[in-house]
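Worked example 2:
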Amino acid sequence: MNNPTFTMSDQSSRSVVVSEQTRLEKVLASVVRRELLQSAPDALREAMKSKWLHRDEVKDQYGLTDRQLQYLRDEKRVTYSQHGRRIWYLRESVEEYFEEGRVDADG
């Protein structure tokens, strides 16, 4: 059976030739997602974020140490879920924790 060949061009006159429909669908989905993420308003980007963050993501994004995360769990300052040794933090809870300590500048 002969698969149809699809050709598409973008604004810069580059062409992409895709020989399978399923591959074309994957390419199109990838392009659409990239374009949406680049042009989406902040609310849409916020909605696409994952609900739970792994411990390493929290450490990287918020500059916290393992000890600080342990303290936040012990004091029940953030919501978390533990499965074995893996600990996941509710993104909203971590952001609320930082908002509580926010000091606005005068002026």
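The domain at 49-100 is CATH 1.10.10 (Arc Repressor Mutant, subunit A). The chain has two domains: 6-47, 49-100.
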